[in-house]
Design goal:
single chain, mainly alpha, 6 helices
């Protein structure tokens, strides 16, 4: 009986600690240098890896844009959102030639659309059209990634 209780406690502990560790590792705030480095890596990567790297880049740029918007630097946030739109188009183009890490790409894009929706709800009326347009493009890329995942 004691063994069953210990095993149950270990399973419970393992289920609660692993998600906390995963959240803690992704809590790093992206900065402009890490985004520039990832962008250079994505541009030089093999075509089969570019889709996932662009999705990572979109996710990091969105996070930085949200942080800049909350800090009151709307100009820099808008510039990043325009770059996110351009990268969403690159994701569309690079998705056709890849079958690697499509599920991970779809998950990253799903998280990014969630953050963009949060940003849309928190933004001023004047800033909403750009956020809505960015959200539409990222959602389109996410839908395409999901369709690719289900076709495989």
């Amino acid at each position: 009986m004691r063994t069953k209780v210990r095993i149950a406690a270990l399973v419970f502990l393992g289920m609660t600690v692993a998600p906390v560790c995963a959240i803690a590792s992704s809590d790093r705030a992206p900065d402009e240098q890490s985004i520039a480095a990832l962008e250079a890596k994505a541009d030089q990567a093999q075509p089969k890896d570019q889709c996932f790297l662009y999705a990572q880049l979109v996710q990091q740029m969105t996070e930085l844009s949200v942080r800049q918007y909350l800090a009151g630097d709307v100009g820099k946030a808008d510039t990043l959102l325009k770059r996110v739109q351009a990268l969403a188009a690159k994701i569309h183009l690079s998705m056709a030639g890849t079958d690697r890490r499509l599920k991970n790409t779809e998950i990253l894009l799903s998280n990014t659309t969630f953050r963009l929706k949060e940003m849309l709800h928190a933004s001023d009326y004047d800033d909403r059209p750009l956020v809505e347009e960015t959200l539409a493009k990222v959602t389109s890329a996410q839908d395409e990634a999901m369709m690719q995942v289900f076709q495989k």
